Amino acid sequence: MNYRYRSDIELLELILGVKTARKVYQGSLARLFIDGTREVDGYPKIVAVQELMQRALQEELRQRDVLSSPSMVRDYIRILLSGREHEIFVVILLDAQNRVIDAEELFRGTLTQTSVYPREVVKCALRHNAAAVIFAHNHPSGVAEPSHADEVLTQALKQSLALVDVKVLDHFVVAGTASISFAERGLI
Prior knowledge:
By secondary structure, the chain is of the alpha+beta class. The protein has 7 helices and 5 strands. The chain has a 5-stranded mixed sheet with strand order 2-1-3-4-5, with helices on both faces. A hairpin with a 2-residue loop joins strand 4 and strand 5 (178-181). It starts with 7 loop residues before the first helix and ends in a 7-residue tail after the last strand.
């Protein structure tokens, strides 16, 4: 079934109820889920809907080549990392057909940095029998621009994973609704 709603607020009203939706809504659903906090004004249904969106995107990515839908990968990563108050480093593990096996949060840091250990990333890839990976981390500061340290880390991880025949397809930096792809910038 394909339902059409006149506005985002109508859809939100169906999910949360009219009174709650009007109080929570601030312009767009994308802003609410990606820019907002994990919980909005104490309404846990927002968190549940965000989780459902994340699971739906992950399931879709398990059934298709991620390279055939870069925008879906970007949306998945933004939902995965939205509203985090500290840096999170995530590895999306892919099979030989570039379908998602799993996504694993490997490292959690502070507001401005996180320590990432190549040895642990390699162990994770081997444990899942991954043929390729996509990295993602957030910048709680709100600036999606990759730092020099991000570029150095990506190259070190790429070299470490190459030793065990695992390809690094991309690395995303997410800040709010913005995301930067290393592959699109020629940094991979």
